[in-house]
Amino acid sequence: MAARADGIGQFAVEGNFELDQAVLEGLRSESRGKRGFALIHLKLSPSPAARSYLHMHMVTTGESDKLMSEGQFEADKAIHGVSKSFCPKPHAWGQFRNSEIPTYFLLADFREIGQQPPDAIRFTSQLADVHKKSESPTGKFGFHIITCHGKAAQLTDLWDDSWESLYQKQLAHTFEADRQKHPDWPEFEYRKKLVLEKCIPRLLKPLQSEGRNIKPCLVHGNIWDQNTVTDMETGEPFIFDGSAFYAHNEYELGNWRDPRHRLGSKTYIRNYKRSFPASEPEEDWDSRNLLYSLRFNTCAATLIPGSNYREHVFEDVGELCSRICPDDLAAFESDLDEVDAGSAGEGMKEEQEEEDEDEEENEEDEEEKEDKEEEEEEIDSD
User: Fold this and answer.
1) d(CA 331, CA 292)
2) Longest C-alpha distance within the chain, in Å?
3) What's the pTM?
4) How many helices (H) and strands (E) does the chain have?
5) What's the DSSP call for residue 118?
6) How far apart are CA 293 and CA 197, in angstroms?
């Protein structure tokens, strides 16, 4: 067994390993006509003469990770069903049998990773193509199973005719996870409330009213620099690690707004909009993009303790509210200022009272001291 760094800078371990029985059964179901599988860097590859091979895409522990493994399997399967070249085919997922703690795996076609992220024109064109060609099995927004953003379970396992309604439920779910994870922050909670009650209706209702409509599109659900890649063999872009559900296609670009992602470059967004123009009302596109970014960045804040993502989301919800419901935001902040001013006034009053009390005590002490001195003088004179 040997350790090395692979071609993309990832740490890898090479050697012979004993495969869990559940993995072997998954391989048997997918390896008819293929021989000579060996485990290399968790890649299950056949004899050199064969062109197709599998790789152990994920090994994860913890009972809650069952959702992540199954959700990714179903997500990638749905995307692969729309475009076989744009997402590696997932073959099996399951739980290790010979493990003391719950451990899950996912087997999928292996493809050598090249440039990340891929060429903007090819990538955005094929992504838009998946969005256009996909068809919701129910004609509604949602998904048939829970999918995850990292290890955070998303509210995807429901169906709704209204995108406004579904996204309101999903964002409320994400906001609640944030509230439970972090210390109380009343200003943030009020801004969240405004987003759910004011901003979402204002920005999403027009998409499906006054003669306008949008189709539920299959979205990857968490596209960023590290799961968008170029195939080293074909030169074509592909994606993996899906968190899919049927959504407004523009939701996909919400994760690109943050400058930490290279996909946030105007080149990617501009080319995507050339392939799939902005929904009407077009003038709301940027505000919708800001709204969609909140779910991704709030999840990131929940998953990465100690990061400054939550402070960024606080600023973003403030920006969105200032665009959509500035009067409500200003009224709350004015009330907050009055409360602060009142608290400051009470504090000053308490400080003054304490100073007055101290002064009275000092005066009393002085009087006692003078009385004592007079008594001593009388005694000395006697």
Assistant:
1) 25
2) 125
3) 0.80
4) 10, 15
5) -
6) 17
- pLDDT (tens digit per residue) in 114-173: 999 999 999 999 999 999 999 999 999 999 999 999 889 999 999 999 999 999 999 999
Q: Are residues 75 and 221 in contact, defined by beta-carbon separation less than 8 angstroms?
A: yes
Of the CA atoms within 13 Å of residue 354, those in its CB half-sphere come to 6
DSSP string covering 199-264, please? IHHHHHGGGGSTT-----EEE-S---GGGEEEBTTT--EEE-S---EEE-GGGGGGGGSSTTSGGG
- Higher model confidence: residue 372 or residue 181? 181
End-to-end, the C-alpha distance of the chain in Å comes to 105
Count other C-beta atoms under 10 Å from residue 169's C-beta. Answer: 15
Question: How far apart are the C-alpha atoms of 230 and 216, rounded to whole Å?
Answer: 27
The model's pLDDT over 34-59, given as tens digits with 9 standing for 90+, comes to 332 223 334 443 433 333 455 555 56
Distance of CA 285 to the CA centre of its chain: 20
| pLDDT tens-digit series, residues 84-115 | 999 999 998 988 888 778 888 888 998 989 99
What dihedral do alpha carbons 64, 66, 71, 72 form, nearest 10°? 110
> 200-239 burial, b for 16+ CB within 10 Å, e for fewer?
bebbbebbbeeeeebebbbbbbbbbeebbbbbeeeebbbb
